[in-house]
UniProtKB/TrEMBL annotation:
This is Sensor protein FixL. The keyword Heme does not apply. Putative oxygen sensor; modulates the activity of FixJ, a transcriptional activator of nitrogen fixation fixK gene. FixL probably acts as a kinase that phosphorylates FixJ. GO terms for molecular function: ATP binding; phosphorelay sensor kinase activity. GO terms for biological process: regulation of DNA-templated transcription. PROSITE patterns: HIS_KIN, PAS. It comes from Novosphingobium hassiacum. InterPro entries: HATPase_C_sf (IPR036890), HATPase_dom (IPR003594), His_kinase_dom (IPR005467), HisK_dim/P_dom (IPR003661), HisK_dim/P_sf (IPR036097), PAS (IPR000014), PAS-like_dom_sf (IPR035965), PAS_4 (IPR013656). It comes from the Bacteria. Residues 127-200, 255-308 form the PAS domain. Residues 402-614 form the Histidine kinase domain. The keyword ATP-binding applies. Keywords: ATP-binding, Kinase, Nucleotide-binding, Phosphoprotein, Transferase, Two-component regulatory system.
Amino acid sequence: MNGDLSSLLLEHVPAAAALFDRDMRYLAWNRRWLSDYRLDTQNLAGKWHYDVFPELNDHLRDIHRRVLSGEVLSSDLEQFDRADGSTDWVNWEMSPWHNDRGEIGGALLFTHVLREPLLSGPWLRSLHNELNLLVDSTWRHAICLLDREGHVTVWNIGAERLYGWTADETVGKSHELLFTHEDRQAGLPREQLSRAMKEQIVRARSWRLRKDGSRFLADCTISLVVDHNREIVGFGNVVRDTTADAERISLIMAREAQLHSILETVPDAMITINEQGIIESFSATAAVLFGYDVSEVLGRNISMLMPEPIAGWHDQYLSRYRSTGERRIIGKMRRLLGRRKDGSTFPHELYVGEASGGGRRVFTGFIRDITSREVGAAKLREVQSELIHISRVSAVGTMATALAHELNQPLTAIANYVQSCAALVESGSNVPPTQISEALSHAAHEALRAGEIIHRIRDFVSKGELERSIIQVADLVSEACALASFGSMHRKLECVVSLPPDLSPVMVDRVQIQQVLFNLINNAAEATNELGEIQIRAMQVGPIVRITVEDNGPGLPEGGEEEVFEPFISTKTTGMGLGLAICRTIIEAHGGRLWCGNADHGGAAFHFTVPVAERIDE
């Protein structure tokens, strides 16, 4: 920067101004700089600024360093104590200047000095009055000034409202009257002033005393007050009543502790995550369930608790929810798999809730381990399957006599046909081959008939898991009627089957539904006389088919519609009362319902529903 040009420019600035290089040595200055700082006899060229003003403290030197680093700084009114004991009050602004290469070449400082006579004039009196009005208008804070010994010198309206004492009652008295007896005995008032002497500002919380003897919890700030000569003149005391705040905080903390205790003791694990899937809280139950310490999961992604491929998809799910707002999991119970620390997986139910507040959103998951429930359910299904199988075997045992009769007929016929053929051949008669062929054909037919009976009985007593397939209702009914007819050789039993031609096929386990129909038909046969009639009907109602087995017997006793399904309750002298209970279990496992009642003509009617097979479009 050209020195002559810079000096010329500075002379036209309406403030004291000086130009420095990067070492804070003078490059240029104006006449006002010399006059304001009483430097008329000095030549400042090349002099170090800190030699000219040795009273510059570390605070001002730090400001210079910051400006030379590129900052622009200023102050409206700052006290500047001179080495000769005088005090200047200065408004200033300091900024860096750049050379033709764009580098910081140094600093430019503008100042405006307000001397003591000006400060003691009308402006200072106006400022003093405005300050008093501001202090007195502060209702929420008690503000008072204390002298060096702790006597009240200023008492605002806020202090009068908070403490109950007027200014006339407090000014000139020790501020110890504001403390409780216990704190005065412990020397707390004197201790706080002593600390303020050393630390400049002291913040404390203690109980304070009102004029009426009541107490309040006070947040208190005590500041050391010094004059322009750094002489201690007293203390500033600002007090705020925080009793209500403390009570609210205490209540909130108590509620938080209670909530934390509840969440830590509930049997469900609880995990909280943010919108990015980062774990923010991990309950004690969750730690036990997943095998992690809390410190091992906080701050990590929730996907660490999921097996693949779900773990890799989870962040995409969160991103999609943030962008679309579409809820697919939130507010719903879902069955998922979790991954423990040791890598093992377990089934659990997950319920996710959402909460928003403070500009952020969190998700809370409640997790219930259902391993034991699913193991128990599998055991129950196994026992039920075994019981159902035993029921079928028992039914076949009951039919043993009838089965012997049914099998004896085709076996006898086979024997007769074969013996006849042998006799014809041995007689040497000229028997036409067609006659022998016809007899053997009849024998083969009877053998197939016996084989079909054995095959049907073997399928009926077979043991296996629930295997559903698409089956026509007519096939189920005809096979069940054929099985039931084995046990009715001494009756003239008639099964009247009435099925709509457009009845949809059903999705069921063939053997188990045959077992249900067999039991219902067999019970109906035992409830009728020698000329009994059993009607079997079916109708489709939306996605289900209802099948009815109705007899013309004496019907059910009044009020016994549910009792007949209770296990170990039977009207038969040799029955165990398990047949209908097992039938209901089978139907409910298919998602249907089994119930009974009396028909219009007085006989018993049993109804059950099974699902229609879903159509799959090509």
